[in-house]
């Protein structure tokens, strides 16, 4: 790798040509010996080998406020989706074997097998790989969001607004990657076989991905900027920006930019923090909030359900689209793990419903709602034969072999039927962007078959959680 790759080239006669990633301007600067005849002090504190930049030129041009640039965002997200599915096809035999057979039949079978939380993946896949995926998709959204693309980590509402917007997109992107038209369920149908049927990735990718992105933003402000103050060496600056912010670096490449690109300051050659007297503050004045009613709300609940006379604890996700000032159209997918089953039995519940919700968009912080949602409820139970497991399972078994043997010492049972959720609750608004569901109480009526002598036809559900309101900021 040469210095050309970092944006600079040595011109004839001992002059440097510095190339800024922002705008592509080139400035020819005379070489200055500040190190007693030893050439430019790339690793030292001196910045004299770079011509001072006028304060008005030090920062990138102000980004205009405006709507999300959906065209570039869709294109970059498609690149990312293609890379991930290509990697799956190259490295996962199970994905390749899942391509055999009818496409729609395999896809529907994968969707129908979804239940529970765990999906059998290793710890680093669920809690490192998928959070990175969530962070990358969040950065993709931010770099195509003109109003907030140059935010910097800090205790200011502008930064946290941008993070909420990015998290909402990361949730949508993750859901599509897991079960959408171009997903793990449609390409390889991996959820159709044990143990890939769980919902852990639907939860970990957007939530832990948001935390990962916040961590990278904090590193950029407090560590990377400090490194850039201490040295003008373009190699060190470029490596620091790239390696310490891997998710942001990858999102930059998907947009056709260099790894170390930043929207809040110039490139690694032009940036001069010591003379940067007009650094854009993280808590600068915000564009005015948009008046009106949020057209979209994303709700992340924790739930406790009394189902079939037994407790069931879990959570899920809920999306509500505003039809008018009084009504919404709501989509709810929730799941919970059953407790109180006999020894060697385990079970879980998946409820998926959609329907109208009455929630007036008034000026009060308190917002009541009522809804009637219709869809389905799937109950799954599993019985473990401990004696058979003791004989069949060996400590030396590979993960693939353990998964195959699991079917030999367990029996699974399930029932799927029509369900109706009727109830209401109240939200407390903290801000245009965020509300808290103080309490929600629903009656669940389902027409499932009795499963192992347990009637799951009626249940009572309590929920609470955070609601993200999108479209007014």
Can you walk me through this structure?
The chain is of the alpha+beta class and 473 residues long. The protein has two domains: 63-285, no CATH class; 296-470, Beta Barrel (Porin), CATH 2.40.160. Helix content is 32%, strand content 27%. The strands form two sheets. The chain has an eight-stranded antiparallel barrel with strand order 4-5-6-7-8-9-10-11. The protein is globular and about 75 Å long. The protein starts with 7 loop residues before the first strand and ends with a strand. Residues 1-61 and 276-291 have low confidence and may be disordered.
Strand order, main sheet: write it out. Answer: 4-5-6-7-8-9-10-11
Class inferred from helices and paired strands: alpha+beta
Summed up, the helix count is 11
State the low-pLDDT regions, or none.
1-61, 276-291
Q: Which sequence of SSEs, written as H and E, runs from N to C?
A: EEEHHHHHHHHHEEEEEHHEEE
Largest sheet features: 8 strands, antiparallel, barrel
Rg from C-alpha positions? 27 Å
Overall strand count:
11
Q: Span between N and C termini? A: 43 Å
Please indicate the count of domains.
2
Percentage of residues assigned to helices? 25-40%
Strand content: 25-35%
Q: What is the typical, i.e. mean, pLDDT?
A: 81
Shape category:
globular
Topology diagram in text:
Blueprint: E1 8-11, E2 15-19, E3 26-30, H1 55-58, H2 70-91, H3 93-97, H4 103-112, H5 123-143, H6 157-179, H7 200-230, H8 234-243, H9 246-254, E4 296-307, E5 310-322, E6 327-338, E7 345-358, E8 366-384, H10 386-392, H11 399-406, E9 410-429, E10 434-446, E11 458-470
Helix pairs in contact: 2-5, 5-6, 5-7, 5-9, 6-7, 7-8
């Amino acid at each position: 790798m040469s210095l050309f790759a970092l944006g600079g080239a040595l011109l004839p006669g001992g002059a440097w040509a510095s190339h800024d990633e922002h705008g592509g301007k080139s400035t020819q600067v005379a070489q200055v010996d500040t190190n007693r005849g030893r050439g430019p002090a790339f690793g030292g504190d001196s910045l004299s080998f770079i011509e001072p930049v006028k304060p008005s030129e030090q920062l990138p041009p102000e980004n205009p406020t405006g709507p999300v640039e959906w065209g570039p965002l869709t294109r970059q997200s498609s690149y990312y989706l293609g890379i991930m599915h290509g990697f799956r096809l190259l490295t996962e035999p199970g994905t390749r074997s899942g391509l055999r057979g009818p496409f729609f039949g395999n896809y529907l079978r994968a969707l129908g097998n979804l239940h529970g939380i765990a999906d059998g993946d290793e710890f680093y896949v669920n809690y490192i790989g998928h959070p990175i995926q969530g962070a990358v998709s969040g950065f993709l959204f931010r770099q195509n969001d003109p109003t907030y693309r140059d935010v910097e980590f800090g205790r200011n509402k502008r930064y946290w607004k941008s993070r909420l917007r990015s998290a909402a997109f990361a949730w949508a992107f993750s859901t599509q990657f897991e079960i959408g038209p171009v997903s793990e369920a449609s390409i390889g149908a991996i959820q159709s076989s044990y143990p890939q049927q769980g919902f852990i990735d639907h939860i970990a990718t957007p939530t832990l991905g948001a935390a990962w992105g916040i961590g990278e933003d904090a590193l950029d402000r407090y560590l990377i900027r400090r490194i850039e103050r201490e040295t003008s060496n373009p190699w060190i600056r470029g490596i620091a920006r790239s390696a310490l912010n891997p998710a942001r670096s990858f999102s930059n490449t998907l947009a056709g930019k260099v790894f170390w690109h930043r929207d809040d300051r110039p490139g690694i050659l032009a940036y001069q923090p010591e003379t940067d007297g007009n650094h854009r503050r993280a808590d600068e004045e915000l564009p005015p909030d948009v008046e009106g009613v949020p057209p979209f709300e994303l709700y992340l609940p924790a739930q406790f359900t009394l189902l079939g006379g037994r407790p069931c604890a879990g959570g899920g996700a809920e999306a509500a689209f505003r039809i008018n000032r009084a009504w919404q159209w709501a989509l709810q997918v929730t799941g919970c793990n059953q407790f109180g089953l006999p020894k060697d039995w385990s079970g879980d519940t998946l409820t998926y419903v959609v329907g109208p919700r009455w929630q007036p968009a008034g000026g009060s912080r308190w917002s009541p709602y009522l809804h009637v949602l219709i869809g389905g409820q799937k109950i799954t139970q599993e019985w473990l034969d401990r004696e058979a497991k003791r004989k069949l399972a060996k400590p030396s078994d590979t993960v693939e072999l353990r998964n195959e043997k699991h079917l030999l010492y367990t029996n699974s049972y399930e029932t799927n039927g029509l369900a109706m959720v009727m109830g209401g609750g109240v939200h407390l608004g903290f801000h245009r962007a965020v509300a808290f569901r103080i309490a929600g109480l629903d009656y669940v009526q389902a027409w499932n078959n009795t499963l192992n002598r347990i009637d799951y036809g009626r249940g009572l559900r309590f929920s609470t959680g955070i609601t993200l309101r999108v479209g007014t900021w």
